[in-house]
UniProtKB/TrEMBL annotation:
<dbReference type="InterPro" id="IPR015422">
    <property type="entry name" value="PyrdxlP-dep_Trfase_small"/>
</dbReference>
<keyword id="KW-0032">Aminotransferase</keyword>
<dbReference type="InterPro" id="IPR004838">
    <property type="entry name" value="NHTrfase_class1_PyrdxlP-BS"/>
</dbReference>
<dbReference type="InterPro" id="IPR015421">
    <property type="entry name" value="PyrdxlP-dep_Trfase_major"/>
</dbReference>
<protein>
    <recommendedName>
        <fullName>Aminotransferase</fullName>
        <ecNumber>2.6.1.-</ecNumber>
    </recommendedName>
</protein>
<feature type="domain" description="Aminotransferase class I/classII large">
    <location>
        <begin position="46"/>
        <end position="389"/>
    </location>
</feature>
<dbReference type="GO" id="GO:0008483">
    <property type="term" value="F:transaminase activity"/>
</dbReference>
<dbReference type="InterPro" id="IPR015424">
    <property type="entry name" value="PyrdxlP-dep_Trfase"/>
</dbReference>
<dbReference type="Pfam" id="PF00155">
    <property type="entry name" value="Aminotran_1_2"/>
</dbReference>
<dbReference type="GO" id="GO:0030170">
    <property type="term" value="F:pyridoxal phosphate binding"/>
</dbReference>
<dbReference type="InterPro" id="IPR004839">
    <property type="entry name" value="Aminotransferase_I/II_large"/>
</dbReference>
<comment type="similarity">
    <text>Belongs to the class-I pyridoxal-phosphate-dependent aminotransferase family.</text>
</comment>
<keyword id="KW-0808">Transferase</keyword>
Length: 401
């Protein structure tokens, strides 16, 4: 290769070059937002693009921080699965939450739910294996699967309420299927899958696993389990399907997104669970996570059971619903999490999001979540910002009538 050719060759691998070309719509909106805020002032822009919790952590977190600061605390290496006492405390908490007895040996502490997802995929995926998930879905799932040779296979849901389309799911499962990944409450739709849906899904996976002669895992991503509305409950999958793995984090419930503390819980009823857990402890290490942050583990251990003010999110949800109704925008009212996923007036989600930008409102096109024709709004912002955006939503929607 000539020196000129070497100088013009990309420093990046082709796959990463392609990733940059189709990079997250959320990141694009973040960059657009920065430009608008620089031009018009931060207070003039109504930013609903990022799911970045703005509430303060509960008092239990600050109490734990004060105790850590006073103590002769060391923060060296620990067992790669996490501090034994932190895992024991978490297991007790999860036993109540999931309605199934869980031991410390069923739990691995990870660098957020993302670390848990990547550790699990690295442990179970072979090149070409498929990871199925209902659409809409969290934008990073495809990258996580591809990190480890997998292929994300989105499956459509029912368009009015984002409930599972069991026929579409049954048609999608094939001999390459290795994992079915669900996220409930869902980001971006706010849908909570019912126990009846999950039982039907579990029965389908059990039948197809027998048919294909290989385990199809059910992977449940649950960082919004704590945040539900109108008496909705998030059913536990552990009693329904033995080959279930639950991953979650305390980013939202304890407002510790930057501390990166999460976990993976392997169903105690899973045949061969000890081998899977050993594999995940290894992958958690060799992927470079090594172990979850020491401070985060201690904070989690002492703040289990505490959570941010859920009623504040309920008030914001009501305000956002009022604003959308006033603009004549059709939406499914979220049952959990802090997102709306309304239908884009005119049907073109990118065009409508651009119209919102003209009104200094930031949203994310639904195609970034595998579902064109919708757009996502994160209502983890102050209620005054939501209400200030009302006139802009009306003006943007009027352009498509």
């Amino acid at each position: 290769m000539s020196e000129t050719a070497m100088n013009t060759a990309s420093a990046l691998a082709p796959q990463i070059q392609a990733y940059l070309q189709r990079s997250s719509w959320i990141r694009k909106m973040f960059e657009t937002g920065a430009e608008l805020k620089a031009r018009h002032g931060a207070d003039a822009v109504c930013d609903f693009s990022l799911g970045n919790p703005d509430l303060s952590p509960p008092d239990a977190v600050y109490t734990a921080l004060e105790e850590l600061a006073r103590r002769d605390q060391r923060f060296g290496y620990m067992p790669n699965a996490g501090y034994p006492e932190a895992r024991t405390a978490l297991a007790g908490y999860l036993s109540d939450e999931q309605g199934t007895p869980v031991s410390a040996n069923d739990v691995i502490l990870t660098c957020g739910a993302a670390g848990a997802l990547n550790s699990f995929f690295r442990a179970v995926l072979e090149p070409g294996d498929e990871v199925l998930c209902p659409a809409p879905y969290f934008v990073e799932y495809g990258f996580y699967a591809e990190n480890h040779g997998g292929v994300l296979h989105p499956v459509s849901t029912n368009p009015d309420d984002f409930s599972l389309d069991m026929k579409a799911m049954a048609d999608a499962i094939n001999p390459k299927s290795r994992v079915l990944l669900i996220n409930s409450p869902n980001n971006p739709s706010g849908r909570i899958y019912t126990k009846e849906e999950l039982q039907a899904l579990s029965d389908l996976l059990a039948a197809r696993s027998r048919e294909f002669g290989r385990t199809i895992y059910l992977l449940s991503d649950e960082p919004y389990r704590f945040l539900t509305f109108d008496d909705h409950q998030t059913p536990s999958l552990l009693p329904l399907y033995p080959h279930t793995v639950v991953v979650s984090s305390f980013s939202k419930s304890l407002a510790l997104a930057g501390e990166r503390i999460g976990f993976a819980l392997v169903n105690p009823a899973m045949p061969g669970k000890d081998e899977l857990l050993a594999g995940m402890v290894l992958t958690n290490r060799i992927l470079g996570f090594v172990n979850a942050p020491a401070v985060g583990q201690r904070l989690m251990q002492h703040a289990l059971g505490a959570k941010v003010d859920v009623q504040e999110y309920a008030r914001r949800r009501s305000a956002m619903a009022e604003i959308l109704e006033g603009a004549g925008i059709s939406f499914f009212k979220p049952q959990g999490a802090f997102y709306f996923f309304p239908k884009a007036p005119g049907g073109d989600d990118v065009a409508f999001v651009q119209a919102l930008q003209e009104e200094l409102i930031l949203a994310v096109p639904g195609r970034g979540f595998g579902t064109p024709g919708y757009f996502r709004l994160a209502f983890c912002v102050d209620e005054t910002v939501i209400r200030r955006a009302g006139a802009g939503f009306k003006k943007a929607a009027a352009k498509f009538r």
